[in-house]
Amino acid sequence: MIATSVGFSGYLKRDLLLAYRRRGEAASPLIFFLLVSTLIPLGVSPDSARLAELAPGIIWVMALLATLLSTESLFASDYQDGSLEQMLISPQLLALTVLGKVTAHWLVSGLPLTLVSPVIGIMLSLPGEGTVPMMASLALGTACLSLIGAVGAALTVSLRKGGLLLSVLVIPLYMPVIIFGSAAVQAAIDGLNWLGPLAILGAMLSGAIALCPLAIAGALRLVSNN
Amino acid sequence: MSTAPLLTVEQLSYERDDCNVFKPVNLAVEAGDILQIEGANGAGKTTLMRLMTSALQPTAGSILYQGRSIAQCRYEYLADILYIGHQSGVKMALSAEENLRWMSPASTSANQIAEALVTVGLGGYADVPCYSLSAGQHRRVALARLTTSRAKIWFLDEPFTSIDKQGVAALQNQLQNHLAQGGAILLSTHQNLAIDGLRTYSVEPHADRGELR
Question: Would you call B86 and A83 a contact, using CB atoms and an 8 Å cutoff?
Answer without folding.
Answer: no
